């Protein structure tokens, strides 16, 4: 029989020396590292010193006995697979062991093949649960790393991230404000080979030109007034990790030139210094500007644009992925709980309003709206009154705007309003199949007013 015990650490606790020897003789030749304990207490000490991959406990041994030990482990949240040694005729003991969360049991007298097989299964189980835990940790534990959305445009983003995360390629993330550019930069880093290294974000729009240069590249002592000591720049701090250059479109021509050099030669100098430093970083940049347009207008170096745009990830505006809004709302309700309680519920009416909103500020604006609504509703049911949406920005009003824009120069205002009113009355009447009362209700006026306005026409 072939086994894969190699590298597995097995702890055996039993007060009978011959049993310890027997199990050791079965497991060690297959590659397992065996640790032994002669009492429950010794087993606990061994567990504290090193967590094994599998534990084997005898039910009867100096305290604590095998079942008590198992209970203690589970209470401490240690979930390694535990095998319990029972006499084969003791079915009640076996049942109790399984109820307490034993992985399996080994019946005496021992069958070496069966033991090997059971330990091997337990080890494999252990490896699998570890792997699942690792993956969970990697993908979901840090809320900063969760990208929500299943729509087509987001699927496209995920594919791109998957394709480029592993390489060191420079990535330019584009998209409107609040679409998640920084979040994507972070996710890229967390899924790259540099994930153990630092992720350094620099907002290039936040600092004036000279300060930005020393922020990025550092400076030597005395490089300028106020440079009291040598200072490492962000490129140095990001060594072995990633640097995120946010708002790259705002960078001055001089700094653009220096950035171009970093990207071309992977070297830079501190401000006021001449030592050539190596840039061991992956560069991720973001902008909500059209850099090609910037290049055409002479504000942005075209060569730098191409160096940055090796891979482009374009973030869709929220209005291009309306389907994702309920998922995002759900996510933000969980993220922003009121006083640490349950995620707040939301009314259908509020949900509908949120889904029909145009969201010029994209996901960030949606998140802010939800966060504020949770507070206004004090953790209770969120209704439309808690959303405080800027009414001029609803999809409905945008549609109205674009329709009206075409009418702007068609006729003088009084005439236009007359026509509009007449048209709306007729439309409502048509919709309601000639029922005046219903048409009036649809327009939110009384039937008497409806009739009088109609007869005016
Ligand atoms: N797909 C998403 N899933 C979950 N949260 C998101 C998503 N997109 C954005 N967010 C959240 O929305 C907020 C804004 O995102 P982020 O700061 O990444 O946007 P941005 O594109 O960098 O905006 P700006 O251009 O204004 O800097 C953050 O709190 C972020 O966590
Ligand atoms: Mg940003």
Read across the widest sheet, the strand sequence of neighbours is: 2-1-3-4-5
Chain-averaged pLDDT: 87
Count of runs of 4 or more consecutive helical residues: 19
Task: Give the DSSP E fraction (strand runs of 2 or more residues).
Answer: 5-15%
Main sheet: strands, sense, barrel: 5 strands, parallel
List the helices and strands and how they pair.
Elements: E1 9-13, H1 17-27, E2 33-37, H2 40-49, E3 54-58, H3 66-75, E4 82-87, H4 91-99, E5 104-108, H5 112-141, H6 152-164, E6 171-174, H7 181-190, E7 199-203, H8 209-217, E8 218-219, E9 231-232, H9 234-237, E10 242-246, H10 253-265, E11 267-268, E12 277-278, E13 282-287, H11 291-296, H12 302-308, E14 311-314, H13 325-335, H14 348-356, H15 362-376, H16 395-407, H17 413-431, H18 436-443, H19 447-456
Parallel strand pairs: 1-2, 1-3, 3-4, 4-5, 6-13, 6-14, 7-10, 10-13
Antiparallel strand pairs: 8-9, 11-12
Helix pairs in contact: 10-12, 13-15, 17-18, 18-19
The protein binds adenosine-5'-triphosphate and magnesium ion.
